[in-house]
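FIELD: query
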Amino acid sequence: MGNAGRVGACRNRHPTRPEPQGEDMPAIPTMAAGAGQAAGAGRDPQPSTRSLRGLDAINVLMADVRDGVGPYLAVFLKGGEHWDSGAIGIAMAASSIAAAIVQVPAGLLVDGTKAKRLLIAGSGLMIGLGCLLITAYPSFAAVIAAQVMLGAASAVIPPAIAAVSLGLVGRRLLDARISRNESFNHAGNLLAAVLAGALGTYLGYHWIFYLVCAFALSSTLAVTLINPAEIDHDRARGGEDATAAGSPLPFRDLLRRRDLQIFLASVVLFHFGNAAMLPMAGQVLAQAHPGSDTAALSACIIAAQFVMVGVAWLVGQASARGVGRKTIFLAALAVLPVRGVLFTLTSSPYGVVAIQLLDGVAAGIFGVISVLIASDLTRGTGRFNVAQGLMALSVGIGATLSNATAGYVVQWFGFTAGFLYLAAIACAGLAFFALLMPETGTGRTSQAAAAPAAA
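FIELD: result
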């Protein structure tokens, strides 16, 4: 989107420059013209301070709500309800399956409705109700039903917040707004982890679920701070984008692209080898150190969040200095088997927290570089958002496979076998990506720049 705007700006500065004629070039003037029309059609939005502060508050509060209780569910079911690891794996996977199924319909729902504030508030309340259901009726059927509810609701919240952000501030200020959203989101995760650790340690597991409910109710109040009249719903669904005027690559043709297929398969393998590690570590702590498990798990999350902030900045610096996308993603994949093997060597809370710092490295890299690779692979297709949806679906598939299968490996062969199993999957992902995935960064950009001149 931003590239189209820069292309249009360059053409305005050089009106007499002849347009290069290449195979993909006819769509570009249309996109630039559309961008110019969108810019001239209206003024920059000027949302009130109250609305912006409400959006800040939503990002802080929803950081805890949209993820539900996450790995704390495994601790609660293992340490408080004495479930076996296989059943816990199924319960964790239920949320991932529901989120994966609802991912695309959730995006369509957010695009098609003007009640975006209601979607955010309603989804938060659904997650709060699901947490209450788990604490009140911790049976297998009730927990699975609640996890499905949590997964479905959590799929709605991120696109709804992004849409409200775009509708409030517009395309020109979106980069800064999204960066601010993420900063407040990390702050919310840190706050929630500290509170969950304290409540779980001193008041009991149930209070972790009550904390999510409190955040959900507070986020509902925060939503009311946003003035609905200030949300441009056409802009919120990308209506100001010039790509809407072009002819995007047919979805079937997009799915046939080999580089995209390899990337999505790599995303599946990354999360297959990663997603179940922290919940399994939580079960180890609950079994070996009852009473201190929630505090240690909170320390894991807090430490990883701090590392993610620094790693995300370093990835941006490395990318700007010309380090290839493939090299950076390989570094993330290489961390996973090391982490899995290290988890087999200790059950000490201090050791688990130290090992979990590696998750901050891997997840911090993935959160940035995966978006950049998706952008590279879909450049000129008009299908970047579709690729984002496919990537989210791949994440869900990988997380589901990880939780569902690792739980039974642990049940049958023990925790050491479970961690080594995930490490082996991560090694397979590393080899797969290293051997089959092409570089999508600087080399690809150079080729794209050279193509018009050759034509």
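FIELD: remark
Residues 249-443 form a domain with the Growth Hormone; Chain: A; fold (CATH 1.20.1250.20).
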